[in-house]
Amino acid sequence: DVQLQASGGGLVQPGGSLRLSCEVSGFSLDDYTIAWFRQAPGKGPEWVSSSNADGGSTIYTDPVKGRFTISRDNAKNTLYLQMNSLKSEDTAVYYCTRQSNWGSRGQGTQVTVSS
Fold this sequence. Notes:
Blueprint: E1 3-7, E2 10-12, E3 18-25, E4 34-39, E5 45-51, E6 58-60, E7 68-73, E8 78-83, E9 92-98, E10 109-113
Parallel strand pairs: 2-10
Antiparallel strand pairs: 1-3, 3-8, 4-5, 4-9, 5-6, 7-8, 9-10
């Protein structure tokens, strides 16, 4: 059974940092590109970042470039998203997906950036 579970969200002030984790099961992380998406209230899903199977190639949407870093520990079957210099517009539920397939998302984690 393929599962992807995001965690690590919370309430943070503007300029703060959070580190999200995505623990996967039912498949080997090192066989797949894994992506982070986010969905803000009342909006559709937005792709945030992707990491290829060996982690050697990473890409980001423009609004988060220079602030977010995607990484992975294939031995732990876990993907991470380090988020720095957070802004109010980063507020959303964050999900991880397999192969950038929105339909593969599991439980998300809420990130709220507010003073």
